[in-house]
UniProtKB/TrEMBL annotation:
Catalytic activity: Random endo-hydrolysis of N-acetyl-beta-D-glucosaminide (1->4)-beta-linkages in chitin and chitodextrins
Domain GH18: 50-330
One matching Pfam family: Glyco_hydro_18
A GO molecular-function annotation: endochitinase activity
Protein family membership: Belongs to the glycosyl hydrolase 18 family.
Residues of the signal peptide: 1-21
Annotated protein name in UniProt: Glycoside hydrolase
This protein's UniProt keywords: Carbohydrate metabolism, Chitin degradation, Glycosidase, Hydrolase, Polysaccharide degradation, Signal
Cited PROSITE patterns: GH18_1 (PS01095), GH18_2 (PS51910)
Biological process per Gene Ontology, one example term: chitin catabolic process
Gene source species: Heliocybe sulcata
Length: 330
């Protein structure tokens, strides 16, 4: 019993070493000898950078839950949005309306295409700290939902701006407790756990509670990467390659990509987030072809974290194909 389990786990970890940027197809012949426990270890192995992330919150006619994989070719993470404090809404709710067999089929198709399926929680309508939600019990509830519906992980889209603006550490401490418990329930290497902060929250010395740099210093080792929202922060913020990558404005100092890295966040955790169209955000839009040149510039400086987009269907396979064209062609 012990020796067979050990051999299975050793085989599993050997396979883990071969993970590049996608979930493994455990139906492939090379995994025939693995037992169920070893398969469970591999099932949700966290994909390596670069991460190509797309959110979906918008109703799409004729589609319940995720779209056919052909429509999101070029991505490797699809985020069903949102799971709120009061329960699942929009695409997350649609996922619950599918039968277990239908969900299993979709998951198999997505995993075979190298795409992880996660749920994004909170979003702009939830204010967990300000509303008094308990971070530990909230994490437990979310983790149980992820397990019940067999998803690959969680994206934490925390947008409680009043809590951050208070400067008393309530937002940061809530996130630290929440992330710690969420990772306890969804172990690293088995489940993806990402955060989606707005870029200014990484500005040093602007937040009385320490901002996202405090969160990163405390629980960054538990977070796989950050889907950073470089948009909705002002009409001229993060709209050029230089403003996005190297020199942010004085309004949000030291919050461009490489400036965040200089503050101590490793480059491979800093995913560039942008809206698909001008209609998907108030501001911060960069045309896909221009964004492709920014991505190439960042790649040439050693960055490889990837790109996030809000949202499907305004962004689909053609959008990411363009954005990746000068760096990691599809």
């Amino acid at each position: 019993m012990v020796s067979s389990l050990l051999s299975g786990l050793l085989a599993a970890f050997a396979c883990l070493a071969s993970v590049v940027a996608a979930p493994l197809d455990l139906d492939a012949p090379q995994y025939d000898g693995l037992g169920q426990q070893a398969r469970d270890v591999l099932k949700r192995a966290t994909p390596a950078a670069p991460h190509w992330v797309i959110y979906s919150d918008k109703y799409a006619s004729g589609t319940t839950g995720p779209p056919p994989v052909s429509q999101v070719a070029g991505y490797n993470v699809f985020a069903l949005s949102f799971l709120l404090l009061e329960g699942a809404w929009d695409k997350a709710e649609e996922w619950t309306t599918l039968t277990a067999a239908e969900r299993s089929t979709v998951l198999s198709q997505y995993h075979a295409a190298g795409i992880s399926l996660v749920v994004s929680v909170f979003g702009s309508t939830d204010v967990p700290t300000s509303s008094g939600a308990n971070p530990v019990t909230t994490a437990d509830t979310i983790a149980a939902w992820v397990k019940e519906y067999d998803l690959d992980g969680v994206d934490v889209d925390y947008e409680d701006f009043n809590a951050f603006d208070a400067g008393d550490g309530s937002a940061e401490n809530w996130l630290i407790s929440f992330t710690t418990e969420l990772r306890n329930q969804l172990p690293s290497g088995q489940y993806i756990l990402t955060h989606a902060p707005v870029a200014p929250w990484f500005s040093p010395s602007m937040w009385g509670g320490g901002g996202y740099l405090k969160v990163h210093q405390s629980v960054g080792n538990l977070i796989d990467w950050y889907n950073i929202q470089f948009y909705n922060q002002g009409t001229s913020e993060y709209t050029t390659c230089s403003g996005l990558l190297t020199t942010s404005s004085s309004t949000w100092p030291q919050s461009a990509l490489f400036q965040i890295a200089a503050s101590g966040v490793t480059l491979d955790k800093l995913v560039i987030g942008k809206p698909a169209t001008t209609g998907d955000a108030t501001n911060g839009y960069i045309a896909p072809a221009t964004l492709a040149t920014c991505v190439e510039q960042a790649q040439n400086q050693g960055w490889d974290a990837g790109v996030m987009v809000w949202e499907f269907p305004d962004a689909a396979a053609s959008w990411i194909t363009t954005v990746r064209s000068d760096s990691w062609p599809v």
